Amino acid sequence: MFFTLSKVFWFLASPDTLLLLALLLAALLSFTKKASWSRFLIRLIAVGALLVATVPVGSYGIFLLENRFPANPPLPDKVDGILVLGGIISAPLSAERQSPQLGGAVERITEAAKLAQRYPYAKVIFSGGSGDPFNPEMREAHYAPPLFRQLGLPDGRVTYDDRARNTAENATVMHDLAKPGTGENWVLVTSAFHMPRAVGTFRQAGWRVIPFPVDFSTGPRHEWRPAFSLRGGLTHLNAALHEFIGLWVYHLTGRSDSWFPGPAS
């Protein structure tokens, strides 16, 4: 139920959806006796779009998320396992094209493969079920093996989880698969902006993983540079808002150990 509700909520609450719904409402009002309301709403939408396009609020949110954990953290001499979160492969498109079709965040796999080569005795677990409630049979993990093979990791080296549908399920399912022992070192690889929520869920599952953020889109220092790109502003705002709402909801529902997990949490 939580999975479905979260998908429906974000579909309706994302900034790009709200912008489209507001435009549709303004168009409908223009055909009624409330045409003055339509003009007011259009002006409001224009001001909002201008702010999103010029004020880098979304990029600053991404900056805060991405810099919560240090990049290229020092790793111990012995690593027992490497955990790789999905969100890389489009399962429906891969099924149609009969080969893995990648979206963003491909560094999750490439950097994990580098770590696997650095630690040849470490176990590797890739977690990627179906995040689409309308296509539950389309599971990302089914299309990941060819990518790992191309990067030098044979099938026997990698364990694939095709059940987890969100970050909270990633943590619990991977914990069941790994059965980590006391004192073991497990490295978690995911996009830097997603790392705080991921770490919070793994800690809540009783797992003190070593965060290894990848796939950065901002630098280590943030500069407030006004731009003029509605697409860029909406992209950053969508991503940042999705993560911060996710952090709040996960902690509120007991799926994360902190409101904003960090190295000292």
Please, could you describe this protein's structure?
The chain has a 5-stranded parallel beta sheet with strand order 3-2-1-4-5, sandwiched between helices. Helices cover about 50% and strands about 10% of the residues. The mean pLDDT is about 90. It has about 260 residues and is of the alpha/beta class. Strand 2, helix 7 (about 145-150) and strand 3 (about 160) form a beta-alpha-beta unit. Helix 2 (about 15-30) runs antiparallel to helix 3. The protein has 2 domains: about 1-65 and about 230-250, no CATH class; about 70-215, 3-Layer(aba) Sandwich (Rossmann fold), CATH 3.40.50.620. The relative contact order is 0.18. The protein starts with a helix and ends in a 13-residue tail after the last helix.
Features:
alpha/beta; Rossmann fold; 2 domains
Put the structure in a nutshell.
The protein has 265 residues and is an alpha/beta fold. Helices cover 48% and strands 9% of the residues. It has two domains: 2-65 and 229-249, no CATH class; 72-216, 3-Layer(aba) Sandwich (Rossmann fold), CATH 3.40.50.
Task: Itemize the secondary structure elements and their pairings.
Elements: H1 2-13, H2 15-29, H3 35-54, H4 57-66, E1 81-85, H5 91-97, H6 107-118, E2 123-127, H7 145-150, E3 158-161, H8 167-178, E4 186-191, H9 195-204, E5 210-214, H10 230-252
Parallel strand pairs: 1-2, 1-4, 2-3, 4-5
Helix pairs in contact: 2-3, 3-10, 4-10, 8-9, 9-10
Q: What is the alpha-carbon Rg in Å?
A: 21 Å
Percent of residues in β-strands? 5-15%
Which runs of at least 5 residues are low in confidence (pLDDT < 50)? none
Going by CATH, the homologous superfamily of the largest domain would be: HUPs
**Which fold name is given in CATH as the topology of the largest domain?**
Rossmann fold
Secondary-structure arrangement, i.e. CATH architecture of the largest domain: 3-Layer(aba) Sandwich
Write down the CATH class of the largest domain.
Alpha Beta
Derived from helix and strand composition plus strand pairing, the structural class reads alpha/beta
Cα end-to-end separation: 29 Å
What level of helicity do the residues show?
Answer: 40-55%
Total of DSSP H or I helical runs spanning 4+ residues: 10
